[in-house]
Design brief:
Radius of gyration: 17 Å
Number of domains: 1
CATH superfamily: Aldolase class I
Structural class: alpha/beta
Largest sheet: 8 strands, parallel, barrel
CATH class: Alpha Beta
CATH architecture: Alpha-Beta Barrel
Order of helices and strands: EHEHEHEHEEHEHEHEHH
Length: 278
Amino acid sequence: MSNAAHPGSLPVPALVLAADHRARGVITIEDYRTYTAALSAALAHCDGILASAQPLGDLSRDGSIGAHHRTYLSVNRTGLAGSAFELDDRLVASVHRAAEEGWTGVKHMTRIDRTDPLTAGALELLGQVLEEARTCGIEALVEPVVWRDGAMATGVDDVVYAAVVAHDLGAPLLKVPVPDAEAGSARTDAVARVVASVGVPVLFLGGPRRSEDGGGDPLERVLVEAEDVMAGGGAGMAIGRALYQEPRPDEAARRMAEVVHGSATGGAGSGSGSGSGR
């Protein structure tokens, strides 16, 4: 989709660094200075970042976020991982705050559990956030997921379902799981089906740092996954742990940027755009 059709939107293809896990109790790197140093290293090769309030502000203040970076304040994080109230994901920051602080957008997660009445309120909240983002003139990056038995469902039918619901409510930019399909043409076809179900750019998330079947290089696994995403028409990757938990976050992000941007150079700024960091 042309960026010209959506002034102020994320130029794609894009690599967005995801850094809002700790705020919902997923303590990926415990030492805060080590954590922000890893984020800063990875950011050098990314086109944007989605993060909770404290790390986003600190990365801006220390100069890690540049004028070319798109910035998304993560606004709902009360659904702590593994808690009895994980589905009850309320606002911890406002769209108004994001606009006032100069971020280019907000990131909002919506879990859809068709067996839990809390989902109705979650969808209502999504609608409110989308309206406020339009009023404030900033972008909303929405992560809609089907939630089943306390976990994210990644079958292609589930990914399509959540994407369609959020899209038709007005989400201008989506972040969804990579569909669970065999690597190669099957996964590429599954990604293409998700992309075809909506009319806006779709980023695909990377998930935790892990290897296939407990072996192999976890970075190679996610790079191959990203290749299938891009071949299927994905707008890019919104990925965090699989990059910043690597021993060399800068090198991991550089290699991912090459896949996303389809060149040997890759990196932040490969896609042109006017978004400012703050």
